[in-house]
C-alpha cells in the first residue's frame, strides 16, 4: 500500500532531533508490513546535495513568490519527494533557524508550502494514505480535508511543546477556506496553530509512547490542547518509538574504539578508556562514568543534572556532558568541568560519532527530562549497555524497568527511575545507581538485561501499519 510521509527533517539527510530518526527509520520498518513509504521533505541544501538521479514530477509556476518543483529521487536508501523551492529552503543555518540562532520569519509560509505540496502529491500520485509528522506538517490534514477527494491522514505528535503558532494575519496566505479559521479548525487562542490543525483535521493521531498519550490528556501535560485531545481520545494512539538496530549496533558500529555485544562484553572497556582519554578524564576503569547526551534545555532537565552532580562527585564518579542549547546552561556546564578537573568532561555541540562512543563508553546514561514524549537516548543506552537513569515520565517510563529491591531479587531491572522535575529525587537516584555499581553482579545483570531489551521498530511498525491500512480501507 503506498503511503506518503511528510516530515521537515529526515535522518541521515537532515536532523535536529528525534523526529528525524523516527521519520528516517519508519520506511524500512513498514516495508515488511506491506507499506511502501515515500517521504516528502523540504529541499534544504544538504538534502539536494545528497540526491541521486532526481527527476521533476510536478512544478508550480509560482509558489509563494517564485517557481518551485517537486523532485522524485532516492538517497540513503530512502524513496523521496523533495520540494525544491530555493526561495524558501536554500538558506544557511538549520531547518528552522538561521545562523544567528533566530527562527526564520517566514516559517509559516515555508511549511504551508510543504503542506500544499503534500496534498497535491497525495491526490495526483495515487497514495492511499498520508502520514504527517509534527507541527511543520500540521496543515497537511487541513489541505487534505478540504480537497475535492479527501485522503486519510495519520498525524504523529513528536513533542506537543512545539506547536507552530503564528499571527492570524497570515491566514489569507494559507489557501484554506474561511471556515478553517475557527475554534473548530486552526484558531488557537487568537493565533493560527499548525499543530492544532493536525490534531483537529487528521483522521487518527498518535504520540511516540503510550505514557505520553495519557499525559497529554491532562492540563499539566496537554499544554493548552488537552481539551481537544480528550475530545479525540478515541482516535489517539500511543506507539513507542524504536531504533534502527542495524544502524545502532555495538557489534558493527564504526565509531567505537572496540566493538562488543552482550555475549562478548569485555571489549566495551576499551570505549570507556577512549572516552576518558578524549575528554582528559582520569584513566581509571574502576571509576563509575555517568553521561548526559541531549539538548541543554529546561525540558531535558540539564539544570537538574548540574544541581545533582555533587552526588556523583562525592560518590567518586565521573560525569560527561555532550550537548548544546541555552547559553546559560552551556556556561554552567563549562564551569562544572573547570571545577572538577579529571572528573567532569564537557563537549558543547553535537557529533554523531562521538555520541556513539559516549553510549558505548559510559557506565550509566542520565536522562532527567521534566517530560519526554519518547526519548531515543535511553533506547541507545540500552542497546549499548549503558544503564539508564531516567525520569519516570513519558517514553522513559515505558522503556526502562526500575531496579527496585523487588526487581533486583526477580532479576528484572534494566535501569533506575526517579521522580521527574525534582533535583533531590535525581540526586537520590544517582546515589542508588552508584550503590548498584558497587555490586558488580547486580550491575552486570542490569547491563545484560538492558542489551537484551527489544528496542527495534518491529512491534511499533505493525501498529502503524494497522492504523494506516484501516484508514485507507475506511476511505476506499
TrEMBL record:
Glycosyltransferase in keyword set: yes
Gene name as annotated: glgA
GO CC annotation: cytosol
InterPro entries named in the record: Glyco_trans_1, GS/SS, Starch_synth_cat_dom
GO MF annotation list: alpha-1,4-glucan glucosyltransferase (ADP-glucose donor) activity; alpha-1,4-glucan glucosyltransferase (UDP-glucose donor) activity
Protein name (record): Glycogen synthase
EC numbers for this chain: 2.4.1.21
Domain of life, source organism: Bacteria
Organism: Rhodovarius crocodyli
